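call fold(seq) -> C-alpha cells
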Amino acid sequence: MEELNVTVTSKPKSDIEIAQQAKMLPIVNIATSLGLGDDDMELFGKYKAKLSFQGLEKIHKNKDGKIILVTSINPTPAGEGKSTVTVGLADALHSLGKKVVIAMREPSLGPTMGMKGGATGGGYAQVLPMEDINLHFTGDIHAITTANNALSALIDNHLQQGNELKIDPRRIVWKRALDLNDRSLRQVLIGLGGPTQGIPREDGFDITVASEIMAVLCLSTSISDLKKRLAQIVVAYNYDKQPVTVGDLKVQGVLALLLKDAVKPNLVQTIEHTPALIHGGPFANIAHGCNSIIATTAAAKLADYVVTEAGFGADLGAEKFLHIKSRSAGIEPEAVVIVATIRALKMHGGVKKADLHLEDLQALRAGLSNLKKHVETIQSFGLPFVVAINRFVSDSEAEIEELLDYCSQEGYPVALTEVWEKGGKGGVALANVLLNVLDKSTPSFRPLYLLSDSIEAKIRTIVQKVYGGRDVEFSTKAKNQMSSFTANGWGNLPICMAKTQYSLSDDPNQLGRPTDFVIHVRELKPAIGAGFIVALTGDVMTMPGLPKQPAAMNMDVDEKGNALGLF
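ret:
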C-alpha cells in the first residue's frame, strides 16, 4: 500500500497561551537594568512594580532619550496591531543593543470585555503579565473610578446640606463613572425616595477612561500639579450660570489623596524582557488617547529611545499627542511610525471583512488613499515618519509587493513587520529603517494651530487639515457654548475632538478617504482641569455599550487561577 504524505498543521497559539508560557524575569532585575534600586520602586508581587517618587526624583536630571510615536491608519474590525508593533519595535531595538523603554496606556475593562479584547500587544510581541495588565493591574483605574465617584457623592451631599454655592441641579455637568461598557447607565435619575434620599436630579455615567480625572492624572507632572488641575475641574454651574469647580467645593485634597499611588507609573516587561512603563488609559475617540506624561518623561530619562503609542489613527491619538500632550509636557517626538495592514487597507477600499482573506489588488489600491492622508497629516506637523506594514498570514505576496511598491513610488520609508509571529526579530527591519530616518532627518515640529486661535478656528483647522473635511457645522448649543467658554477665559485651550475612530469623517461608514464632508459638532464640554475643550461630533458616546457577543462570554478561570479566553 502506498504511503500517504500528510502534513499536520498545528493550531496557532492564542495570545494568552503565548503569554502564559513565557518566562518572565523578576521585575527587580528589569529595574536594575535601568539603574533603579530598591528604594526607587514599590513592588506589586514578583513581576510588577511602581516607580516611587524617590525614583522619579532620582532620574529627573538624566538626559532625555528620543521619543518615537506609533500611530496608524483609521482602524477597522480587521485589526491593525498598533500596540503589537509598538512592543515588537521596542523589542527589535533592544535586540540591536539599544537602551529602550516602552510607554503605553493601561487597558480599560470596557473594551477588554467588550469587542476589542485585551490591549497588551499580541503574539510574540506582548507586555507581561498580560492577564494582570488587562484586568485589575495595580488598581490605577479603580482609584480613578473611586475619585470620580467620590466627587459625585460630595456634589450631591453639598446640595443636600444647604447648597452654599447655589449649584443649579439642572446644570451639574459632572457624571459618575464605571470602567465597563454599560449603555443602561448613560442617563439615570438619582435622589428618588423622599427628602432623606438626596435631591432628585438627572445624572449619568461615563466610562472611567473618559473621566476628566483620567485625563488630569495623565497630564499632571507632579502631586502639586495634580491638585492644581483637580481644583480647576468644572463640575456644575450656579443659578447665575457661573462655573462651579472642585476648588470651590474645596475637595481637591481628598481626590489627590485617593490618587496618590495611581499617579506613579507601572513598570513591567515584554516577552523579550524589554522594560515597559504602562500608565493611564484615556480613550482616543472620546478623550486624548495618550499614556501619562509622568510615564513618558520617566521613560525618556531611563532610556535612549522611548517607543510610545497614541490611540487609534493619526486623525485622533497622534493629533491629540501633538496638540495636547506635547504642549503640556514640553516634549516633541523625533519620528512617527504609521502602522498599516493590507487587511485594513482592503476594507478601506471596499472589501467586506468576510472576504479579506481573498487577494484583491484593486481594493488595496483604492484603500491606499487612507494611508496617504495620514502620511500627509504627519508631514504637516514637520515630523519624519516610517510606514510599518504589519503582516498578516492572509496577505499575499502580490499584495505585499503592491504596497511596498506604492510606498517606494511615494518616497515613504517603509518596512515589512512580522512581530506578531517572530517577536523582536520580526521588527528588526523596521528598527533599522527607523534608525536610518532618525540619523538623516531633522524634525521641525510645528502645531497646526495656535492656542490664541478661537475655539471655532481651532476646530476648523483640525477638520480641514487633519481630517480633510470641507467645513464644520456647529449646533446652536455648541455656538452658545463657544461664546460662554470664551467669556469664561477658556478660549485659549487646545481642542480634544470626540469622533468615530473608523472614519476621517464623523460617519463611521465613510471609509477610505472621504472628501467634501462636513463635521457636525453637537456639543462642547469644558475639561479645564485637563486643560482642553472637548468637541463632541456625530453620535460618539462617552459610555459605550456591549456588542451582541461580548468578549466576556469567552472568558473563564481554571482551578489554578489561570485566566482563560482573555484574548
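The CA atoms of residues 47 and 129 lie 7 Å apart.
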